[in-house]
Design a protein that fits this description.
- The complex is a heterodimer of chains A (about 270) and B (about 110).
- Chain A is α/β, with parallel strands linked by helices and about 270 residues long.
- In chain A, helix 8 links the parallel strand 8 and strand 9.
- In chain A, helix 2 runs parallel beside helix 5.
- The longest helix of chain A has 16 residues.
- The radius of gyration of chain A is 20 Å and the shape is globular.
- Chain B is of the alpha+beta class and about 110 residues long.
- Chain B has two helices and six strands, in the order αβαβββββ.
- In chain B, the strands form two sheets. In chain B, strands 2-1-6 form a three-stranded mixed β-sheet, covered by helices on one side. A three-stranded antiparallel β-sheet of chain B has the order 4-3-5, with no helix packed on it.
- Chain B is elongated.
- Classes of the chains: A alpha/beta (about 270), B alpha+beta (about 110).
- Chains A and B meet through strand 2, helix 7 and helix 8 of A and helix 1 and strand 6 of B.
Amino acid sequence: MCTTCGCGVDDNGAKIIDLKETNGHHSHDHDHGHHHHSHDGEHTHDHDHDHLHRVIELERDILQQNDLSAARNRGYFEAKQITAINLVSSPGSGKTTFLERSLSDLKKEIDFHVIEGDQQTLNDAKRIEAIEIPVIQINTGKGCHLDGDMVQRALKKLDPNNGSVVMIENVGNLVCPSMFDLGENFRVVIISTTEGDDKPIKYPDMFHGSQVCIINKIDLLPYVNFDVEVAKDYARKLNPDLIFFEVSATTGEGMESWYKWLKNYMNKN
Amino acid sequence: MHEMSIALGIVRIAEDEVKKAKASKVEVIELTIGELSGVEKEALDFAWPVAVKETVLEGAERKVDYIKGIGKCSECQLEFHLKNLHDACPDCNSYFKDILQGKELKVIALEVV
């Protein structure tokens, strides 16, 4: 679905990449399957139409196409009893490190599968593959967010097991991904102490639409001008139900309570 | 700049409808955009000409109805103008609220020829 991936021409389409298919021979997946712009009726000049003005009443949601794909993903997850998590943050908040840490610490207990979203490169997928977790990389090209259709295509390649947890690492961006439902069970927004503590009110939609907020890099608190309580207060103004975890994905501090919460969530759902 | 995605989404809807109606182009497109929809008017204006180029929407007049954000306080039930998602109830200062309107992002109608 080209409508929501931000791409204008064919070469900018999202690529869904399985490292296993690229290792060694650097072939590129030129899967442009989602480009079905219908240009048929565009300038055909067939003269069976009249030249009267006609009004077509629509009342159609512009994001409808994405919402349909997201609903399909949601049904897939439900049928396979999969917990799907959409990880969002600014670039550089430690999203991939947080993910790596969670996967390494829990992989004996939880069957994880990962979808990595970035504009370019396979770097993050390689990091996940290094800890022996099945991973599919989506390169969005010029697109600034993942959409429901990209995730659907990635899921086909990933083929996650029943009862597993699918972690979807979105493109580093606190604005655009907020509008695009992927069909996930819940959304985790990550901010780090090296950012401003007013980030929540600067990017309200993302905090409004998330269920969990991870405050990362707390090991750096003595060196930065970041007030955890101020950040939480701002975030609560947007979303009074938001659940917080203060962690350092590097040292492992605080990760245990996030693990406990995740396992508890999986047991309940 | 997800407004580009949004504009391309509008183009797709228009292309489909024009084809269905066996028309050739769109003269007027009517949209509603809510104050809390996450779409910036300026960013959409910027993306629009690029998105509609060589499509059925090229040259079409765009009428946009901007919808004011309205929240309802979950504590005191007051309905108030919700300019930002983090606005508190002006009466009781609670941040718990339901959004009654302002999230809209729709193509309302197309005038085709």
